[in-house]
Design a protein that fits this description.
Order of helices and strands of chain A: EEEEEEEEEHEHEHHHHHHEHEH
CATH topology of chain B: Rossmann fold
CATH class of chain B: Alpha Beta
Radius of gyration of chain A: 21 Å
Helix content of chain A: 25-40%
CATH architecture of chain B: 3-Layer(aba) Sandwich
Number of helices of chain A: 10
Oligomer: heterodimer
Helix content of chain B: 25-40%
Largest sheet of chain B: 8 strands, mixed
Chain lengths: 385, 227
């Protein structure tokens, strides 16, 4: 048994679970001897420990799912969804959100210092996968003494984690909400990630990942990576609606390469502000983790096996019509397999022009279905037991 | 706990055709009221398919298993005989390929329950005869140009199709336009004239393989004639 320490950090307004001698074996074969996870909880765990929901964040998210984020100075990334009287109601549910392994908001990742050393990991950090992130989260659940989650919910990379939970720990989760994800990361998505990574690695300030030792930050590369990724999170219609061909702070075009158009100015702003809060190496590792995600061959067999163990996970899969990063078709592949095995699955395609990022934005249908799914199923499951 | 009472008469009839603890798929389940009723009253394991996102959303929020999708494309994903009953209520006439759907119902389900409005009802016959216009009734309230119902058929047409497809009609119940219920087979009046809405319980006959003398065609279990 590893030695676990749970501490509260007042400055960062979050908690840390520090695992010593944990010897976490990663999918790559590497072993993380010690590691820590930064996490936050909201609401309170009930006596039966039956009301815990784990929220998994997306690529650039963090543990600050709700309330105030001291790093950005803004509201948490899903404050509109999680909180008292919100669709995921913290008056009723105990919500846990942890920064993923490999992240850069406090959990062990490339910008953290190595075990018993002064130096940070940088490029020496081992490759992590979605499976590894979930393995680390399970250790956190053990430390919090929660035998079974009522639900795991996440969008995008968070959806990948939710799916991984249902595969690796089917007995520890009663339901999952999988929003805008897929069984595998598609070739197109890998392609966009690769462009982002090349932008970072071609920035002279990257220094082969050792930019901290060189007192540099690959700002330009990371911001270009963010700009291209941001395009993939929107949709053509939404971009047209929001920006069209409108000019930025000028009446006529400049015949130069300034940000003439509002969309250019917007993307530049997105890139610049991202650099202030995100670590370039962490971006490389996490995009890679998503690229390696692939259950397209194994999912059916895995489920058949899980089915034999009388597993009754309740699944909800949600997609968005204008999401071209994780389109409906790819979300539906999961539903088709679950339905062919007569599993408890629901599927909803929400009609919106807001693209992949819809799950973070104001979508009343999303709020309604998540709230209803949680409240009615929590009632049902508790009635049975 | 009190049983849920349905707002629609045909739902109670559908419920009466189903055994307890069954696995049920409702095609075109709307907000899921029927499957919710069946889940509660029959402790059934229920699933639904619904084309409208607005309605599917409400079913999911009730904690039901609802797949948002188009049955004419999405039935493929369900395995053979993965349900005890597949329900198609008031929808067959709106399907592009009703015959194919009927076949799918009995592939996925051991039994199918199909309900539909009877185009052979006397009111409709009289309207067409005397007005010379496409009939508009309470049960079929649409004008010809905006109706979702693209395949009109009568009770007799349906019975003939079942016979052609080797489908067994285990039970058939008629409802008159005043909501009076009667057994279609046992009706003294011609059922095709008085039936406003029909509900059928269908299955495939369990044929024992019989070799026919003249050809190499075989009646196979659960299927029509195979070569």
């Amino acid at each position: 048994m590893s030695n676990i320490e749970l501490i509260n950090d007042k400055n960062l307004d979050c908690s840390f679970a520090i695992f010593k001698d944990a010897n976490l074996t990663l999918a790559s074969g590497s072993i993380l001897k010690n590691f820590k996870l930064a996490y936050k909880t909201f609401g309170s765990l009930n006596k039966n420990k039956s009301n815990a929901i784990l929220v998994c964040h997306a690529l650039t998210g963090d543990q600050y799912v709700s309330g105030h984020n001291p790093i950005t100075g803004k509201d948490g990334w899903w404050s509109r969804m999680v909180g008292p009287n919100k669709p995921i109601d913290t008056n009723r549910f105990f919500v846990i959100c942890s920064n993923v392994l490999g992240g850069c908001a406090g959990s062990t990742g490339p910008k953290e210092t190595k075990e018993n050393e002064q130096n940070i990991y940088g490029r020496d950090f081992p490759s992590v996968t979605i499976k590894d992130m979930v393995s680390a989260q399970v250790k956190l659940l053990d430390a919090l003494k929660i035998p079974q989650l009522f639900s795991v919910v996440g969008g995008s990379m968070g959806a990948m984690q939710a799916l991984q939970w249902s595969i690796d720990f089917p007995n520890r989760v009663q339901s999952i909400i999988h929003i805008a994800g897929a069984l595998k990361h598609s070739a197109q998505n890998i392609a966009f990630h690769e462009v982002g990574r090349q932008a970072i690695m071609n920035d002279p300030n990257w220094h082969k990942g050792n930019y901290t030792e060189n007192n540099a930050i690959p700002e330009r590369g990371l911001s270009v990576a963010r700009m291209i990724a941001h395009i993939t999170y929107l949709s053509e219609d939404a971009m047209h609606r929001k920006f069209g061909r409108k000019l930025q702070s000028r009446d006529i075009i400049s015949f130069g390469f300034d940000a003439d158009f509002q969309i250019e100015s917007y993307l530049r702003y997105q890139g610049r502000s991202f650099v202030e809060r995100f670590d370039a190496n962490s971006y490389l590792y996490l995009t890679r983790a998503m690229d390696y995600f692939d259950h397209s061959e194994s999912y059916r067999k895995t489920l058949e096996f899980v089915n034999n163990q009388k597993n009754n996970i309740k699944y909800l899969v949600i997609s968005f019509t204008s999401d071209w990063l994780f389109p409906t078709k790819e979300n539906k592949e999961i539903v088709e397999i679950l339905n062919s095995l007569s599993r408890n699955v629901s599927f909803l395609e929400i009609d919106t022009d807001k693209g992949h990022d819809s799950f973070l934005l104001d979508e009343p249908e999303l709020d309604y279905v998540i709230k209803g799914f949680f409240n009615s199923n929590y009632g049902k499951i508790n009635e049975q037991s | 706990m009190n049983n849920l009472r349905s707002i629609r008469k045909d739902w109670d009839l559908i419920e009466s055709l189903i055994k307890d603890n069954s696995r049920i798929l409702d095609i075109g389940c709307g907000e899921g009221d029927l499957i919710q009723q069946l889940e509660k009253n029959l402790t059934a394991k229920v699933h639904g398919i619904e084309k409208s996102g607005e309605l599917a959303l409400k079913g999911i929020a009730k904690g039901l298993n609802v797949t948002h999708g188009d049955a004419e494309k999405d039935l493929l994903q369900y395995s053979n005989h993965s349900f005890d009953y597949v329900i198609l209520s008031q929808t067959l006439q709106a399907m592009i390929e009703p015959k194919k759907i009927l076949k799918e119902l009995l592939r996925i389900g051991s039994k199918a329950i199909v309900s539909f409005p009877n185009f052979g009802h006397w009111k409709i016959r009289l309207q067409l005869l005397f007005n010379g216009k496409m009939p508009i009734t309470e049960g079929l309230p649409y004008s010809w140009y905006d109706t979702p119902n693209i395949h009109f058929f009568t009770l007799k047409d349906f019975q003939n199709l079942c016979s052609e497809m080797n489908i067994v009609i285990e039970n058939s119940i008629g409802l008159t336009n005043t909501g009076k219920q009667f057994s279609i087979n046992g009706s003294l009046l011609p059922a095709n004239i008085i039936t406003n809405e029909a509900i059928f319980l269908l299955s495939y006959r369990d044929f024992e393989p019989i070799k026919l003398k003249s050809t190499n065609k075989i009646f196979n279990k659960n299927s029509a004639i195979v070569n």
